[in-house]
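Subject: design request, 300 residues
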């Protein structure tokens, strides 16, 4: 269980004893196989989120060469999480947004890090942002992830922590997520998550439900299992750190994340910091089919 409290000054202190026990258990009973690999990283992700939340009100920003927003917390937290994961798993690959590293094929694990997904929202004081760490196996399949959104409230807490431990069902603030896709049967009541610039290249006029946007790609994807009216997400091209953690959550619940054309997303194409080749679509088989039939590219 991962209890949260919006009033806690330092959530990471709650997990010291739990993680120490997990480390001991792994060494004693599984000396060659890492168990609870995701859970051991929860304190660091919570600490990163806490630091970002505390600094948000006074943060300033600059722009990268590609025009995306950058704050000092992006780079500082990227370094913090990279160092933490490297110390715990020195043989693993790490692909992070703010630090270029060399991907080495054949390693058992590859971690993805987005220190602040939704930096534009974050820099404006908006709540739609999160810290995301994903885990891929040796075949580059997404198998685990942690997503911590300190200012994105849920029905049970003022913040959101989603954990997808390897081989287990994902949890929201310590409670197992139960998938409810009833609104995929009612197009008028279903809702679609989109990225902020989708309207520039695609027409969604034929969609009969409502359109939503969180300000953050990871939260857009997570909205499918977290909010029952939201049945599908349609997002413009993204990087590996934008999708891996959320993809692991969706996979563990039997949901799909593919290219809009129907091709499977290959992470082998993304580990070297390339962007996805086309639109990303996520949801159930039925909801995805519906969106593919009504969303069309704009002329020109």
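Subject: RE: design request

Done. Sequence follows.
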């Amino acid at each position: 269980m991962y209890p949260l409290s919006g009033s806690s000054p330092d959530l990471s202190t709650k997990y010291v004893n739990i993680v120490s026990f997990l480390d001991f258990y792994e060494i004693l009973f599984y000396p060659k196989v890492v168990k609870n690999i995701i859970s051991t990283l929860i304190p660091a992700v919570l600490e990163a989120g806490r630091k970002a939340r505390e600094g948000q009100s006074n943060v300033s920003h600059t722009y990268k060469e590609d025009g995306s927003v950058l704050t000092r917390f992006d780079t500082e937290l990227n370094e913090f999480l990279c160092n933490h994961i490297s110390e715990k798993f020195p043989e693993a690959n790490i692909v992070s947004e703010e630090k270029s590293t060399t991907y080495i094929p054949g390693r058992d694990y590859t971690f993805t890090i987005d220190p602040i997904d939704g930096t534009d929202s974050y820099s404006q004081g908006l709540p739609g942002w999160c810290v995301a760490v994903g885990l891929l196996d040796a075949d580059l399949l997404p198998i685990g992830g942690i997503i911590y959104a300190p200012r994105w409230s849920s029905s049970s807490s003022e913040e959101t922590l989603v954990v997808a431990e390897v081989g287990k069902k994902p949890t929201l603030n310590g409670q197992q997520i139960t998938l409810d896709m009833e609104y995929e049967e009612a197009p008028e009541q279903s809702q679609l998550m989109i990225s902020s610039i989708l309207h520039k290249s695609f027409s969604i006029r034929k969609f009969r439900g409502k359109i939503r946007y969180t300000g953050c790609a990871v939260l857009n994807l997570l909205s499918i299992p977290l909010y029952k009216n939201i049945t599908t997400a349609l997002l413009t091209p993204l990087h590996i750190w934008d999708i891996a953690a959320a993809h692991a959550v969706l996979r563990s619940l039997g949901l799909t994340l593919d290219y809009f054309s129907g091709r499977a997303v290959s992470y082998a194409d993304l580990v070297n910091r390339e962007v996805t080749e086309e639109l990303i679509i996520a949801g159930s088989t039925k909801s995805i089919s519906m969106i593919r039939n009504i969303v069309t590219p704009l002329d020109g």
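The domain at 182-297 is CATH 3.40.190.80 (D-Maltodextrin-Binding Protein; domain 2).
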